[in-house]
Design goal:
single chain, mainly alpha, about 75% helix, about 0% strand
Length: about 100
Amino acid sequence: MTVIIIALTTEMVPADAMVANGFASMVAVQSVAAAVTAGVACTGVSATHTAAVACAVSTAISAAVSTTISATVSTTISATAVTTTVLSISGTHDRQAIRQ
């Protein structure tokens, strides 16, 4: 079982920082259980325990990074859209007040 913790912000995050944050989060939450679970998909890779574990860890890491980055991008875009909408409504209201 992999647990991913993401700190959410309302600011746009540069892509390189987003990837770095995703990687840091992923490293912090990996566990033996996650590697063993992911290892089910790696049983045909090699008969050796070392290779199977390496494949399992690689699979778990890939999934965690992908999930973390996707969630961060989605949340960031949503927060930005909400902020833009609020500013747009405020701007319209201000212009109407000036006309009156």
